Amino acid sequence: MKCFKSMSFLAFMSIFLLQTEVLLCLVQGKVHYHEFILKDTNFTKLCSTKSALTVNESFPGPIIQAQKGDTVYVNVYNEGRYGVTLHWHGIKQPRNPWFDGPEYVTQCPIQPGTNFTYQILLSSEEGTLFWHAHSDWSRATVHGAFVILPANGTSYPFPKPDGEQVILFASWYKEDVMTLLDETLKSGGLTTSSDSYTINGEPGDFYLCSNETTYRMSVDYGKTYLLRIVNSEQNVDMFFAIADHNLTVVGADGAYVKPIVTSYIMITPGQTMDVLVTAKQSLGHYYMLASPYYDGEADDFDKSMASAIFQYNGNYTRPSSPIYPTYIPGYYDIDSARKFVTQFRSLASTEHPVDVPLNVTTRMFITISIGMLHCPNNSCAGPEGNRIASGLNNISFANPAVDVLQAYYRNISGYYNASFPDEPPNLFNFTSEDLTADNYTLTSRATRVKMLDYNATVEITFQGTNIMDSGENHPVHLHGFRFYVIGSGLGNFDNVTDPLTYNLVDPPEVNTFPVPKDGWATIRFIANNPGVWFMHCHFDRHMSWGMDTVFIVKNGGTDETSIRPPPDYLPACSKNSLFGADQSMLQIEE
Q1: Is the pTM of the predicted complex or chain greater than 0.90?
Q2: What is the CATH number that goes with domain 27-153?
Q3: For residue range 40-64, what is the model confidence (pLDDT) as tens digits?
C-alpha cells in the first residue's frame, strides 16, 4: 500500500466532509465523487510498447458525467514520476480559482506520492467539455470528456437523441512526451511531431499494427446519435467527417448553437462540439476520419490520418473495407476551415438567451506571435542560434516559483508584475511577409499579468502576426469565463471599419476560439468572476514557448463577489509558499 504525503486520512476526511456540508447549503444540484489515480501504464501502439502517464490506467481517461449546476469532487493520487495538475476545461469555477489547475498560475504540481482533491463547481455550462492535465505536456495522455447534462426539469433544445458517444481526438508519441519536451526546451529548437493521431485512443486502419484495434461505433438504422466531440490534440487542428453522413452541429464549448448542417467540421485543440448524426444509409461500415488542418509555413506537423468505423448493426455481408468519405478537406484547405468557423451563432432563445456586453470599459489589443530569445554564444537550435519563443504583445510568459494565485491572495511580492500592456510596444504591418528584423522577432521573458476591476466590460482584439513567416491559426483559451466572439477577419484589424461588422445579436459564446492566420478576432466578456485566470494558446508547444498571460479579476464589494477562501491544503511550491517547504522539482529557473 502506498503512503501519500499530504495530510492524515482523518484530517482529510474532516475537511472534505465540512466542505461538502457547506457546499450542499450553497448549491441545488447533486454532489459527485471521483477518484483519479495517476500512474504509468504500458501500451502497445504502432508496433511498439511504451509506458505513458494515465488516469486509472486508461487512454483516454474516464468520462465524468454530471448535470448542470452540480458539484464534483475529484481526489487525485499521483503515483507517477513527476508533478502534475488537472484542469477542468471550460468550467468557469465561480469565485473558485483554487481548483482551476494550471501549474504555477493557480497551484503548484501535485508531487509524486501525494494527493489533492479538486472541487468543481458547475454553473451555466451544459453540453460537452473535458478535463486534462495542465502541466507541461502531460495532457498528451492525461485527459477525458466531461459531460454536463441538462438540469432536472429541462431538456435539450433539439429532439432527444437515441444514443450518444464521446469521440475524442488525441496525439500519440512513440517516445516519452516529457523527455521530448525536456529536449526541446534545452535545445531551444522546434518540437517533435506526433507519430499518429487517435480516435478514442486508437490510431485506426491507416497506421502499422493498428487495424485490429480500430475504434468501432455500433449504430442502428434510423436512429439519431449525439456525438460529443473533443479535440485534445497537442498541436494540430482537425477536420472530421463520416462517410456519406451529414453532421448537424448543435453545441460548442458547453453551450448550444444554431444548428449547422455540414459534411465536415474543423475543430481546434481545446474545442468541444456536440454533433447529431442520423444512421440512414445502407447497412454497412463507414469511415470516421480525423485529418489534420495546418495553415502555417513551417509545415512541421504529422501528415497522417486517424480513422474509426461507423458500423451498422443488422444482417448484411461484412464489406472488405469501410466506405471512404467522398469529401474531407485537405491538410492545407484554409477556405474550408474558414467557411466552417464563420457559421457559428448562439442559440439566442428564451431558454438559452445571450447577453452581449455593449458598454466597453476595458479595451485591449493583443498581438500573437512567434519570436526568439537570445542565447549566449548563439548556442541554441532556433534560427540564428537563438531560442524559439512565442508571446502576447511581445511578452513571453515565465512561470513563477510560487503560483500567481497564492502570491496575489497572500500579497507576496516578487512573483509577478501587474503590467501586462493593453497594446503591443510597436504598431506595424502585422501580416507583412518581411518581418525578420530583431525589432520584430526578439521578445522579452517576464511574468506580467493584467488586472481587471470586478464587473469591468472587457473587449479584446487578438491580432495574428507573420513575424518570422510563422503566421498560423491560433486556438486561444481563457480560463474562468465563457465569452462572446463578436467578430473576426483576415488581414490587419481596422479599428474604424471592422467594428461595423461585429455581431452583437447572436455571437457564439465559447471558451476557446481560433484567431485566423494573419487575421484578427474580437471577444467580449464581463469580468464578474473574481480570481486568477490563465489565458493561452492551446497548442502545447506555443504555450511552452510563452504564448500565455494571466488575468487577475479583483474582488467586488461583498463576500458573494469575492474569491472563496483557499482550501486547507494545496500542493507545495517553495519556502515562501503558504503551503510548502521545498521548491517544486519541475520549476526550472533560467
Answers
A1: yes
A2: 2.60.40.420
A3: 999 999 999 999 999 999 999 999 9
Residues 549, 554, 555, 556, CA torsion sign:
negative
Give the torsion sign (CA, 333, 339, 342, 346).
negative
Q: Quick check: helix, strand or coil at residue 579?
A: coil
pLDDT digits (tens, 9 = 90+) for 128-179: 999 999 998 999 999 999 999 999 999 999 999 999 999 999 999 999 999 9
φ and ψ of 339, to 5 deg = -60, -40
Domain 155-350 classification at class level: mainly beta
pLDDT category at 8 given cuts 50, 70, 90 is very low
**123 touches 69 (CB < 8 A):** yes
Exposure string for 486-510, b = 16+ CB within 10 A, e = fewer: bbbbeebbeeeebeeebbeebbbbb
pLDDT of 442 > 90? The answer is no
**521: Cβ contacts below 8 Å, ≥ 6 apart:** 461, 462, 476, 485, 487, 488, 513, 514, 515
- Per the CB < 8 A criterion, the answer to whether 245 and 265 are in contact is no
In this structure, which amino acid lies at residue 408?
A: Y
Please give the CATH number for the structural domain made up of 362-573: 2.60.40.420
Question: Hey, what's the cell of 302?
Answer: 504529422
Q: Which of 93-102, 106-115, 436-445 has the lowest mean pLDDT?
A: 436-445
Which own/partner contact pairs does 330-333 have at CB distance under 8 Å and 24+ positions apart? Answer: 330/291, 331/291, 331/292, 331/293, 331/294, 331/301, 331/303, 332/293, 332/294, 332/295, 333/239, 333/293
Neighbour count for residue 155 (Cβ, 10 Å): 11
Per-residue pLDDT at 304 exceeds 50: yes
pLDDT band at 2 (very low <50, low <70, confident <90, very high): very low
Q: Is 128 left (phi over 0), alpha (psi -120 to 50) or beta?
A: beta
Q: How far apart are CA 428 and CA 464, in angstroms?
A: 12
What pairs with residue 417 in β-bridges?
448
Query: Which amino acid, 547?
Result: M
CA–centroid distance for 299 within its chain: 23
Nearest C-alpha neighbor of 486 from the set 358, 369, 368: 358
DSSP labels for 128-167? EEEEEE-STTGGGTSEEEEEEEPPTT---SSPPPSEEEEE
From CA 60, how far away is CA 81, in angstroms rounded? 19
Q: Are 538 and 477 in contact (CB under 8 A)?
A: yes
**3-state class percentages of the chain: helix first, strand second, coil last, to nearest 5:** 15, 40, 50
Q: For CATH 2.60.40.420, list the domain ranges present in the chain.
A: 27-153, 155-350, 362-573
Whole-angstrom Cα distance, residue 325 to residue 512? 28
Q: Are 401 and 495 spatial neighbours (Cβ–Cβ below 8 Å)? A: no
Pairing of strands 548-553, 449-452: parallel
Residue 441: strand, helix, or coil: helix
pLDDT at 577: 40
- Element containing residue 18 per DSSP (H, E): helix 9-26
Per-residue pLDDT at 293 exceeds 90: yes
Angstrom distances, CA of residue 366 to CA of 72, 167, 214, 390, 583: 35, 33, 42, 13, 32
313 and 220 in contact (C-beta within 8 Å)? yes
Residue 480 has pLDDT above 90, yes or no: yes
